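Re: magnesium ion structure - here you go.
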Amino acid sequence: MEQLQITSAAPDSALLDLPWRTPLADWPADVLAALPRGISRHVVRFVRLDGRVLAIKEISEAVAFREYDLLRQLRKLEIPAVRPVGVVTGRLDDDGEPLEAALVTEHLAFSLPYRAVFSQALRPDTAARLIDALAVLLVRLHLVGFYWGDVSLSNTLFRRDAHQFAAYLVDAETGDLHRELSRGQREYDVDLARTNIIGELMDLAAGELLDEDVDELAIGDALVSRYAELWEALTGVESFGSDERWRVAARIDRLNDLGFDVGELSITTDIDGTTVRIQPQVVDAGHHSRRLFRLTGLDVQDNQARRLLNDLDSYVAATDRQEDDPQMVAHDWSQNIFQPTIRAVPRDLRRKLEPAQLFHEILDHRWFISEQAGRDVPMPEATASYVEHVLRHRPDEKAILGAPPGEQDLDADVDAGPDSAPEDDHFHLST
Ligand SMILES: Nc1ncnc2c1ncn2[C@@H]1O[C@H](COP(=O)(O)OP(=O)(O)O)[C@@H](O)[C@H]1O
Ligand SMILES: [Mg+2]
């Protein structure tokens, strides 16, 4: 009797076509997608199915359900994490012997395991930028009460976000959601992160994948201090004299600058009203991406959004439209600058990077060649130069990024109007 069972919020019958009667380690090459993977305890494989790439992890039934539930809850809390697809149980091999259950998640498009980041760009500051991204993710998880239990570079995926990276949680197996975390729980998580990161970097160094200038201990310590700084900025109490009220606005500006919106801020005064204390109560990541989305319908990561908003600002100034309706101007900027720029990149090269990342790199390139030429190089000229001199020579990230040829129409995302928030999360981080 067939007893294979698929548990999923959005069941896809194509899942039934996969060779569930075979142990995952022995799946035939023709169903697998050869994409880079991080280090794992369990057998993990990627498969192409119906134009999607899925990640499959063989794991005990109880753990699979637990991780599936946690991933679902994290997505509801708008935490950047891999999207859970379902759990497959009741697997039997051809002799009727039971096989382990499987957790299925969507492969995170444009994501890079940290080893791929290192093997691509050995810039000495790369490690520091990964750590910054991981610190932001860890703070966001702790703000919603998630104790990770096994923070590490292997359990995180990275996506380019302008000059930075954005970190996504990939392995929730050891995690736990609480109403709130104690200081001790947070410290334990941070401490484990430090230990794991130092170990992972030492592994890379042993494999000669790490620049010799990278100091593993200093990077582990940097995570701890970045985390502490960010946590304090987001949750710390600040007090000042009642004649210094501007400091309320200054605090909000500072949080916006860190990429967070303030959902709720408590303000208290002492009995005689001479001292004011403020403390953010609710903060939400994605300040810039939310603003850009409201203005243009473009759904991109936060630092990319910041970059695009700056370009929009210069467009407003250059066209002298400070008095116009911001949404109208943003629409014109998108029509006249952003979209034509992306479209000017030949299709086969376009899929190497997300559109917003392309635009960001073109802006960088324009700055660079304008300086060399001693004049303001216009966007179309800069784009052509970028395509010829930079993009063409980049390693073909298609393979690394996991966008199979012809399966991802980037135009759809460039075109997304204000009413067409993408259903999938390929270009969605934190709104
Ligand atoms: N949905 C996914 N998208 C991209 N990569 C994934 C996905 N799921 C797993 N991986 C890759 O597989 C590796 C191992 O997955 P993980 O869940 O950490 O397994 P384990 O529990 O055995 O440690 C990750 O480091 C990551 O590189
Ligand atoms: Mg793992």
